[in-house]
Amino acid sequence: MERLLEILRNPSSKVWVLNSRYCPQMSDGNAVVHFTEKKVEGALQYATKAICNIKKYNKATFKEAYDIERNEKFNIHSKDNSRLNAIWKFNKAVKTGDVMLYVSGSQVLGYYIVTGTESEITPGEGYCFNSWKAETVEFKGFILINGVFGNPFFKEVGENRIKVIEALTKAIGKKNVSKNPKNNSMTFEKSQQIRQIKFRERLTKKGFTYILDDSEREKNLYNWQDYDSVQRVKDYFTENQIKWWTCYFDAPEGQRADGKSITRHLVSSQITCINHLFFIRNDKNAVLSIINGIPSMPVKFVDVLNIPCDKGENNYISFEVLASKDYLHEIYRKRGELCTSVDALVYAVDENGERWLIPIEWKYTETYKVEDKSIEDNPRKEPGNEAKGKTRLSRYCNIEGDNLIGNSKQLRSLPEYKHSIYFQEPFYQLMRQTLWAECICNSRDEEVLPAEHFVHVHVCPKDNIELLNMHYATVTDKPTME
């Protein structure tokens, strides 16, 4: 830390910022920037061919080449040259001895000291990497500096140098850097992104991103080397007409993802659920052993039953399961898309011969902001219309009609449901899945999954403290997920 302060206090030194949006991990021995033709968190795409050839241009010809490529590929005609100027300066002005701060949001996680004389450019399909030989210094914690780092995501610190010096000095005065309970310098989501980047680097020899290439999708599955195993998963989704979860990178440029292919995203809870459970789904003894091994199960199970909503036999775990009827008045019903379903389901029998639904909700890196879904607007209408919120209130707690929450024996009735915890994620989802299971158990007409009881299993990594320890004081008197 003192070494970094000494460099910052030298007015002749240059200090740059690398934002983790475009530098997904700190790389030992190299400072790397990843330019991509995909939008990243809303930022505009880069003209990567021009950047790859930047050493051939002067500033005027680079600007011309960059503008032409960006217009042709993305139909972008921006007159704002701040980003283009930043790219040019960053590629041309960095020199040996310069410092690059590695930041995520407002957190400084470490820094590089450049040791190479110029950058190395590695082109790829739709992206390119710029890297400098550098000494890597990664903090054990992080330094919080507000109001300094923003667009562009790589730039000189400039007039904000004083703020950085002040924050560093303050951190040294406290004799440590801010830490989370595990002495980690980042959120659980960020740590898993970096973990998957390193995994991809071993898997494909590419790295630098947790998004697989389009041709690599199948490598997101466990046992991907085995063609038959991969085909079993793909056939299951196709035959049962289940949509895959998708992200922005799953769609061709300018289009929407159709959910017909395995996601390219390595940090996907659906993929995590599939990889843990799919390959034992036809093994009755394995499934029975798993559900009996879950702590605090209310009964002992003696059998698991075939789940008839899937094609074939020996379906002891099913995925993206819908109820046989529209119990929740959601109208649209398609597995894996736009309605209440459960990530996985087990259908079991206890020692008394009674049937149980065991819906499983699988979380990975999910976190949720305090966001009231009972007052959410329809973006196609005037602001303040609360149309989506009104639909939800009518659907799940219509006092004059089928008051699903009010009639539930599992959910507490409230004098007013608007602004309640039931419409705050993750409880909004858990509320719907609870009603889903309860309605099936209560229905005398249920023919597909008749059951007397249910127990709801919620899987979440213990290190995802951003989800587990989230404070919901504005919507409930309970401080966390309890």
What's this model, at a glance?
Helix content is 28%, strand content 17%. The chain has 482 residues and is of the alpha+beta class. Helix 1 (2-9) runs antiparallel to helix 5.
Give a structural overview.
It is a single chain. With 482 residues, the protein is an alpha+beta fold. The chain has a domain at 2-180. Helices cover 28% and strands 17% of the residues. It has helices spanning 2-9, 48-52, 59-74, 82-93, 161-173, 188-204, 227-239, 269-277, 284-292, 387-397, 404-407, 427-442, 465-468, and strands at 15-19, 30-36, 99-104, 107-114, 120-124, 127-144, 154-156, 301-304, 318-321, 342-350, 355-362, 453-454, 457-459. The strands form two sheets. Strands 1, 2, 3, 4, 5, 6 and 7 form a seven-stranded mixed sheet that branches. Strands 8, 9, 10, 11, 12 and 13 form a six-stranded mixed sheet that branches. α1 runs antiparallel to α5. The longest helix has 17 residues, at 188-204.
Largest sheet features: 7 strands, mixed
**Beta content:** 15-25%
Uncertain runs: 175-185
- Rounded to the nearest angstrom, the radius of gyration is 26 Å
Shape verdict: elongated
The level of helicity is 25-40%
The structural class is alpha+beta
Continuous helix count: 13
